[in-house]
Amino acid sequence: MPDTMRAIDVKNDKGPATAMYINSSVPKPVPTATQALVKVRAFGLNRMDLMQREGKYPLPPQAPKTMGVEFSGTIESFGKDAERGFKKGDAVFGLAYGGAYAEYIAVSTHMLVHKPEELSWEECAGIPEAWITATQAMYLVGGFEPGKSILWHAGASSVSIAGIQLSKGDNASAIYATARSSDKCDFCVDSLGATAAFNPNDGDWADAVLKATDGKGVDVIIDFIGPQYFNQNLKAAARDGHIVNLATLGGPVLKEEVDMSVFFRKRLRFEGSGLRSRDEQYQGKLRDQLVEHAMPKFKDGTFKVLIEKVFPWDKIVEAHQLMESNKTKGKLICTID
Questions:
Q1: Which residue range is the domain that position 255 belongs to?
Q2: Which of 38, 82, 180, 247 has the most C-beta neighbours closer than 10 Å?
Q3: Which UniProt keywords apply (predicted)?
């Protein structure tokens, strides 16, 4: 077998979308002890890919320089200590530290899931990052339980699309979202089942949340925006509320004054979290939770992978440019010929 493969590369290692190209002489990965080598059929795009391409995302030490953390495909071979339950030729999907924008990927078997017949390669490639991130933020960090209320910022993003469905499936008392267009707000309510969605361009969304909850606020807030929403998150949170921060899309620096007394008056918890930097054991536990909790609902159609558009991978430039436009409602997927 050849020891090279095709993979998406970036000229000079960083740059705009137009700097990406298919490099036909990338070393083919060799699976280490606990890994499987998977021939990739489809991979999902994520906003971290844009940041990595621009040289703005710190990679974990075990990540290859090739972008991409979620994929679907078939197992070609194994390392000597790979997890039992998989065999050569199995159709799988999974989460990786990187390397999914390629013909082959070496990935821990702890992060692989058997592909169900009910789902396509493209759908499976759109599950791992969004649904595992939403599961982690909502349950492990946010402490969500049935009967609690929850707010998902960036409601039309892939993680929040997953999170709103998880919240509905686990009997949240109310599900709120924010999104910066009326179309996306309507999508969150009409298509996903959110109780209400608020457009920050229309005014103080925190006041709207308090009005909708009769002044109580929400129990769990999942935030990707950061400092721009910090004070409003404090206002919108209920007593004993948990605010989970996953990103700082609005910028990393808090410029407004903050009334710290809100924390002890409301008994709030604010916690940042990430997934890509976690070890295999932690990610494996999340995989197991996804398989046990969500996969039956994917199979019966209760949970859906919403895909905005599928591109052949030689159109990766156009795919990244569409993600940069912030006009999508769902996953962008690339398929490999």
A1: 136-272
A2: 38
A3: NADP, Oxidoreductase
**Same domain as 65, residue 146:** no
On the CB side of 214, CA atoms within 13 Å amount to 2
Report field, pTM of the whole predicted structure over 0.90: yes
Count Cβ atoms within 10 A of the Cβ of residue 325 and give its class: 0-12 exposed, 13-18 middle, 19 or more buried. Answer: exposed
Kindly list the distances between the CA atom of residue 167 and the CA atoms of 122, 131, 173, 203, 333, in Å, as whole numbers in the listed order. Answer: 24, 12, 9, 26, 24
Q: Kindly state whether residues 79 and 184 are assigned to the same domain.
A: no
* Percent of the chain whose pLDDT exceeds 70: 99
Rounded CA separation 117/121 (Å): 10
Measured CA to CA, the distance from residue 83 to residue 191 in angstroms comes to: 38
166: amino acid identity, one letter: L
**End-to-end C-alpha distance for the chain, whole angstroms:** 18
- CA separation for the pair 234, 263 (Å, rounded): 8
CATH number assigned to the domain comprising residue 313: 3.90.180.10
**pLDDT for the residue numbered 1:** 61
